[in-house]
Amino acid sequence: MILPISADLIAEHNHAHAAALDEDYAALGRKLARVGIDIEAVKDRVAGFSVAVPSWGAGRGGTRFAKFPIPGEPTNIHEKLEDCAVINQLSRVTPRVSPHFPWDKVSDYGALREEAASLGLGFDAVNSNTFQDQPGQAHSYSTGSLSSTVAATRQQAVEHNIECIEIGRQLGSTDLTVWVGDGTNFPGQQDFARSLDRYLEAAAQVYAALPDDWRMLLEHKMFEPAFYSTVISDWGSSILAAQELGPKAKCLVDLGHHAPNVNIEQIVARLHRFGKLGGFHFNDSKYGDDDLDSGSINPHQLFLVFNELAEAEANPRDGFRPSYMIDQSHNVTDPIESMLSSAEAIAQCYAKANLVDRAALHAAQEANDTMMAFQALRRAYTLDVSPILAKARVEAGGAYDVLAVYRDSRYRDRKAQERRAVGLGAGIV
Ligand code: PSV
Ligand code: MN
């Protein structure tokens, strides 16, 4: 396997920080040992954690207005995979890529799978795209896709999703993520009940094409590109649709797809309670679906989400195996750097959630001791777990300081010489 960053460079950097890391890790180990926690066991759990990166996140995203490309951006799925390999080589926490079709279409998916494997990568959930028209497409999605009033359009959307399943089988995926941009911009534009009926009927055809070991992840979003109503607007619509479709249909929570200030961690607990929590799209936001870097605005919310996931893991229901993925738009940063930083923020929250003293939390909850219940969470949240993450990363061959090694490697500069420039234009949705 030939990985994009020099192993010698990583080793040289790690060597320079080895003594400091050992010291920090030992100090944190002593602190945790005082409360009966074995740091090695926590490190092993962290080493087993992973989050997928989105193929489309490797390029510079944008807003509705424009994007500002950078030299050396990837221009196709092959270059995106190479960039994703850099992220995983340095972080050792992002071994899978989630592709989006038709954006990532190629002629030979078996070869693409091998190419990814040669870079140390596998494929995660496949994503269908019925939220924008493609050149030469027979029917426009301007009337909606799976819920369109036009039968031929619904059929086209069903066929595209089934094609994505077929591609995913070749890539080794086992999940299809379905987000539709269907909705309305004006009161009265469509009938709420009938549009949901149409969606359910079309989605059932996609569901029927799922292989036995596959899941269909329904991603809700309350706005954009439709701004009055959307068909799968919230977790309520999502879970009802998933329940109607069947056991292989689960709900996917994109952190940016809710009304402002909604209690997302409670949604996570609710979906899990009914065996319907399928996966996540991690990102952060201040206003809407801002698609900012994970943990950059509200890291506490991310921790509280992982706290619910830790509870769910301790009390699994209905084959709990959430699929974790980043879904961000990197408008002003190098996407590789954003995903390195985001993956670290996500893994930190996972580690902190694992450090919550659950017995103390549950005892305080039972005794209605509000302050001590809150403190059980607070103690874990305020811990600096970075030595645990760094130790796990370095032991797996990654970099102690992922951003420093990435910058030192001058990877982007080298790609700027090799890759053709990407054009201006709108960003992603
Ligand atoms: C929609 O906003 C979304 O979150 C969906 O996951 C899409 O597939 C993705 O963004 C890419 O634009
Ligand atoms: Mn998403």
From TrEMBL:
Family matches, as PANTHER family: L-RHAMNOSE ISOMERASE
Keyword annotations from UniProtKB, A to Z: Isomerase, Manganese, Metal-binding
Superkingdom in the source lineage: Bacteria
Gene name for this UniProt entry: rhaI
Gene3D superfamilies in the record: Divalent-metal-dependent TIM barrel enzymes (3.20.20.150)
The keyword Isomerase is annotated on this UniProt entry: yes
Record's protein name: L-rhamnose catabolism isomerase
GO molecular-function terms, A-Z: isomerase activity; metal ion binding
